[in-house]
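This section describes the prediction task in plain terms. A model, or a person checking by hand, is given the sequence of a single protein chain and must write out its three-dimensional structure as a string of tokens. No templates, partner chains or ligands are provided. The sample shown here is typical of the held-out split.
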Amino acid sequence: MKRNKSILIFVVCFVSITLAAQTKGELKKQKLKLEKEIIYTRQLLSKTKSNKTKSLNYLKTLGAQIINKKQLLQTLNIEISLLNKKAKKTEIYISEVESSIINDSIQIRKLKKEYAKMIYAANKKKGDKNNMIFIVSSSDFNQAYKRILYLKQYSQHRKNQAKKIQESQSQLITKKEELAHQKEKLNQEVVKKEQLLASKNEEFISLNNIKKEKQELLKKLSKSERYFKTEIQKKQTKSKEVDEKIRRIIEEEILKSRKINNNEELTPEGLALSSEFSRNKGRLPWPLEKGVIIGRYGKQKHVVFGDVETFNNGIDIATDKNAEARTVFDGTVSRIFFIKGEGKAVLINHGEYFSVYSGLKDVIVKTGEKLLAKEKIGVVLTHEEEDKTELHFEIWKGYNKQDPSKWIYKAY
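The expected answer:
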């Protein structure tokens, strides 16, 4: 039992050290990413602000901004905590250096006193008789030899004492310089901490303001319950139709591939492409150069009516007007089809995997065309009445839907 407890303590400590190391390395990147996303989301919100009273899209974008603000506050808390630890370490180090300087100063004073006594004794001896007389006055050769050795050792001891004083003084100067450097470092850490705390306070106020705005907008939109619930039903029906349409297209593609490859689902080239696609999970580029995810994959509670649940087959990415969609991986355009009220859609084959890009107004690729990763496939449609520019993106593995946020690079 004790052994298991020791192992658990070791594991907890190891994990804590590892997390701290990761935090220092990743914290800056994470903070920059969140700040960049907050700025971009703010731009999207300002574009749709005039229409916000009737825009669910504005409400979704507000939700994304709240999530980003919360994550940024968490990041700032971690950064402040790390800075506090760093400042405490610096203070301890300053205290140790100051203590060391005091001890060195005492030691130097002692050395100087000893050296002064030696000089005084040597000068007094010279007043009575010099070193030569001291040696010549020896009673025999053996005594003279010993006196010569003594004088040499005494002279060397004086030199060593002088050298020791110089070295100690030099070390003391270095330590004083190091102390000044550490105090400057501590001042910088204090200033940085104050800036972070001010930033945290600003973000906290901003978050509360956004939350209030969201609550007010929710109240306004909830008054149109009948209208929105009818719209939700229409969208759910449309979503099922699109889901069935994509499933049929994928089935046709698989059957077509089997006919060509003697009942084998994939060619060796297709198998290699599938394997490469699978290996890039979590590293695929975004289907847009700029965008914010405002609709997550899977079962979701409605943004206004919490008692209504919807299922999202992919993710919804809000972007700028006339933004260009791009493929996330090498593949072949399997099908281009139309979704009533939602524009055009493109299905790209990546061997066993398929990616779907819907909500396009223009498509610049053709069926059967081979594409490389990040090649442009079309322009995202803008719904003028809602001022909404949104790409719907899905990933399928055969007949099974996947969560795209787990496939593209740093979705959240």
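For orientation: The chain is about 60% helix and 15% strand.
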